[in-house]
Write a structure and sequence with these properties.
Length: 246
């Protein structure tokens, strides 16, 4: 079994690392020398770093099996980033039960399952960091994404309670992005919509996924050792306050 002395790089699990924010995050950590394990329903790019395990985060036995396998292979888990998520656009009267359940099972219960399985294995070493991707949609009302918004508010709540229960040994934090130009986000836009959204953001653009990855990298580091239970908004000023025309 591997030990810290055998392998100084951290063992980092990232869910949803085959695309977008997760992919950028996996590449960022791997570039820093960490060993990355990607849990995703889809295969990653051919040049993606680390390992891929096919996992549906909504399936708790799938998540448990994957986390156990990573822990058995490496002898420890250092950082877990619960990032996999889905969003569907629909008015509150059009949401179907199946869509709402799926959104909550992936975005909210998927985080709970992954963090729970990881925390159980981190606690004996009294060390570890649990991170997740929330969203500014969870911090205020946002039309046409009721189930998604609720799932992300729930992630911020999980972050608080896991942080309290697992302190002082295990730290938690969420990154709460505004608009990030990823495949998930781009697929929802026409060119006109993209320009309109950019105009509503004080920085006048979407985030690059690498800018979210950089925040995860900081939160996972020892520089963030006094941080737990909190969410960190990275949104180009979108939710800083009211926008005015003058
Ligand atoms: P994306 O679609 O580019 O990537 C999501 C990844 O998650 C994909 O690789 C997908 O296969 C995987 N995935 C989806 N369902 C899964 C499941 N059940 N099990 C395992 N893997 C699954 O999306 P993205 O924009 O990079 O989003 C990543 C996270 O960031 C999501 O949680 C999303 O809600 C959040 N977020 C995105 C934005 C944005 O503007 N893009 C803003 C705020 C929050």
């Amino acid at each position: 079994m591997a030990t810290d002395l055998d392998d100084p790089s951290r063992i980092v699990i990232v869910s949803g690392a085959s695309s977008g924010i997760g992919e950028a995050t996996a590449r960022h950590f791997a570039a820093g020398g960490d060993h990355v394990v990607n849990l995703d329903v889809r295969p990653p790019a051919a040049d993606a770093p680390g390992q891929w395990i096919e996992v549906d985060v909504a399936d708790w036995s799938d998540v448990e099996r994957a986390v156990a396998a990573v822990h058995d292979e490496h002898g420890r888990l250092d950082v877990v980033i619960a990032n996999a998520g889905i969003s569907l656009r629909h008015g509150v009267l059009d949401i179907t039960e199946a869509q709402a359940r799926r959104t909550l099972e992936v975005n909210l219960l998927g985080v709970l399952a992954l963090w729970r399985a990881a925390a159980e294995r981190m606690l004996p070493r009294r060390k570890g960091v649990l991170l997740a991707t929330a969203s500014v949609n969870g911090t205020r009302g946002y039309p046409l994404y009721a189930d998604y918004n609720a799932s992300k508010a729930g992630v911020a709540s999980l972050c608080q309670t896991f942080g309290l229960e697992l302190a002082p040994w295990i730290r938690t934090a969420c990154v709460t992005p505004g608009a990030v130009l990823t495949p998930m986000q781009r697929a929802e836009y026409t060119d006109e919509m993209l320009a309109e959204v950019n105009a509503c953001i004080p920085m006048r653009r979407h985030a690059d996924p690498a800018e979210i990855a950089a925040m995860f990298h900081f939160l996972a580091s020892d520089q963030a050792r006094f941080i737990t239970g909190q969410e960190f908004v990275v949104d180009g000023g979108e939710t800083a306050g009211a926008t005015t025309a003058f």
